[in-house]
Structure formats: structure tokens, C-alpha cells
Amino acid sequence: MTARRRVSDGGRRLRGATRGGRLVLVKLAMSAMLATLATVGGACATGGGTGARGSGGGQGVGRVAPEIVVDRVSGGDLALSSLRGKVVLLDVWASWCGPCKQELPVLNDMARRLKSAGIEVLAVSVDQERGNVDKFLRAQGGHWALTVAHDPRGEIAELLQPDKMPTSYVVDRAGIVRYVNTGFVPEDAPTIEHRLREVAGQ
To answer: What is the dihedral of CA 186, 116, 82, 91, to 10 degrees?
Structure first.
């Protein structure tokens, strides 16, 4: 039996499982992935790169961004699809990631400059514990122009499969992923902003 046939058979078996079984498997896999990211330094990338490409086999460039519902730190749920009509920078980060801590204030300044152009910056934490997100934000202080949210259901890990922290996705007004930036160094910021303005038609 070929490798392709084994993969196909495995897919049929998984589709035949009960919905409850799938949820348990997804949650276990997500927990394992996040635990690995939290302990393996290589997953928290200091070298960034922006381009018209997909990310680690997850949601790729040219496709509709998956529906993701996150919890706003300020309160209430936020569905990614509710931002249609705006250009969105969807940033996936974690409080334990050094480059993420460096990136978030930079994105906040960017959000403040670009909001009037119809550009929204949504920074979603994949921390397992919401308390770690709150602790990080308190330590940073100040007012956040970007929207900070938490992903308690693990939807981003499941649907986008970012293989580095942070990873950001430029999503156009129609909800299509146009660019992906993996990792972060300060030199990435001008390129990210240029991509956002380009997609916004500026």
C-alpha cells in the first residue's frame, strides 16, 4: 500500500469518528502543540519574513481566512468575519514568546497610524491561560490601539497551524489572506505596514 493510500484511508477513518471523538483528538493535539511551542525555543522565531506565501501547511495565501471567534480582552466575542470590509492584520502571538513581546508594541503604533485608513490590527494570543495574557498587558501599561484577544478554543492552532511565534496574516477586505509574515524582527515592521497599505489601496 502506498503512503498516499495510507493517508487517504486514515482520513476516511477520522471522518468516520464521532464528533465528540474528533473534538477530543483536536484538543489533545492542540495542547501538545502549544506545550511544544512553549518549551522549544526554535518555535519562537526571531527571524522574520514577509511574502506572498502560505504558512506551515496551514491557511495559505489566496484563500479565504477561516472563521475564527476569539475573546476580546476588553470583553465580548469577536468573529474574524465581522471585520469584512476592512483590511486586517491578524497577528498570532503568545506571552511567553520573546519576539512577540517585542512585536506587540510595534503593531500597536502601527494600528494607531492605520486605523483611519480602514486597517484593523487584531492580535490574538494562543496562551493556554488567559491570566498570562492579562499579566503581560498590565506589565506593558498604556492604551492599546490594536484589538487584543485570546483564543480559548484553540481555533487558530487548529485552522491556521502557525509553525512559528509570532505569525501575522494580512487579510483583505473580502476576507482573503494576501500575505503572511513568520517570526519577527524590528526590520519587518516597515514591510508589514507597506503590505497593509498596499492591500488597502494606499
So the answer is: 0
